[in-house]
Design a protein that fits this description.
The N and C termini lie close together (9 Å). Helix content is 78%, strand content 0%. The mean pLDDT is 82. It contains twelve helices and no strands. It has 306 residues and is mainly alpha-helical. It folds into two domains: 72 residues, no CATH class; 211 residues, MetI-like (MetI-like fold). Belongs to the binding-protein-dependent transport system permease family. OppBC subfamily.
Length: 306
């Protein structure tokens, strides 16, 4: 297990390099000049040129990229063009908020999704099964930003039982977490149902029923454990989707997390801040994928870790 974890950690190095390469060169396509934004619209060409010289923007792109890459492996993510603060410090301030939002969202995804999938699998092709799958299909189809706005309008504006925006108490968590977790719960529900139906038809489940075991024991101890492998895969992928979804949700609910920071930095063409935010989010996703692989082994000892 230790060697497997070390190999996977080594594999993150080319992933990090790939992420930095893509983000760096995509940001070059964004309209606008950071030097002009910093100097102001009325600044002279000499002032803009001096800022470009100071920031190193007049050098070839590949030279800028390799300097940035070397600095990353030294632990230097650069300095924000907007407020002249170290990028890593700004990211580490916002990251816990985004991780907290992602945690509650994935919790909703797992609890609601697996509960709905198990109920559907226990009573396949019944009215309950059909109803749950229709709701799951709606959850997959509805855009998260629209769903968030509708919940904000209903629970905050009409009923006035939940706060509209912010991140000050547990009440502020409910609407953003539901907005992010609803779509993932729908996907997990469909996967759980499919996997459970496949496992329930196996011979060892029939044998367990023939021995007179309680249905609850058969479902949760025998069937669910063996049906969890594909579900774990989906949950791991959904966590990556949640990190991407925070960009919209944090903007909608005015949450000062990593996603909103990236959006604001793109508007300001703050390249170091965008690159730092995306890179840290990518590293978190890689770590989550590593944990998913370890969970495979935990739930199924027959799986070999390569």
């Amino acid at each position: 297990m230790l060697m497997f974890i070390l190999r996977r950690l080594m594999q993150t190095i080319p992933v990090v390099i790939g992420v930095t390469f893509v983000v760096f060169f995509i940001m070059q396509l964004v309209p606008g000049d950071p030097a002009v934004l910093l100097a102001g619209e009325g600044a002279s060409k000499e002032t803009i040129g001096a800022i470009r010289e100071q920031l190193g923007l007049n050098r070839p792109l590949f030279v800028q990229y390799f300097d940035y890459l070397i600095n990353i492996f030294r632990g230097d993510f650069g300095v924000s063009l907007k407020n002249s603060q170290p990028v890593l410090d700004e990211v580490l301030v916002r990251l816990p908020i985004t991780m907290e939002l992602a945690f509650f969202s994935i919790l909703i995804t797992i609890v609601l999704g697996m509960a709905a999938g198990i109920i559907s699998a226990i009573k396949p092709y019944s009215l309950t099964d059909t109803s749950v799958m229709i709701v799951a299909l709606l959850g997959i189809s509805l855009p998260s930003f629209w769903f968030g706005l509708m919940m904000m309008y209903f629970f905050s504006v009409k009923l006035q039982i939940l706060p509209v925006a912010g991140w000050d108490s547990i009440l502020h968590v409910i609407l953003p977490a539901l907005t992010l977790g609803a779509g993932g719960a729908a996907i997990v529900a469909r996967m759980t149902r499919s996997s459970m139906l496949e496992v329930i038809r196996q011979d060892y489940i029939r044998t367990a029923r023939a021995k007179g075991l309680r249905e609850r024991v058969i479902v949760f101890k025998h069937a669910l454990r063996n049906a969890l492998i594909p579900v774990i895969t989906v949950v791991g992928l959904q966590f990556g989707a949640l990190l991407g979804g925070t960009v919209l949700v944090e903007s909608i609910f005015a949450i000062n997390g990593l996603g909103r920071m990236i959006v604001d930095s793109i508007r300001m063409r703050d390249l170091p801040m965008v690159q730092g935010g995306v890179l840290v989010a990518s590293l978190v996703f890689v770590i989550v994928n590593l944990l998913v692989d370890v969970l495979y082994r935990f739930f199924n000892k027959r799986i070999e870790l390569n």
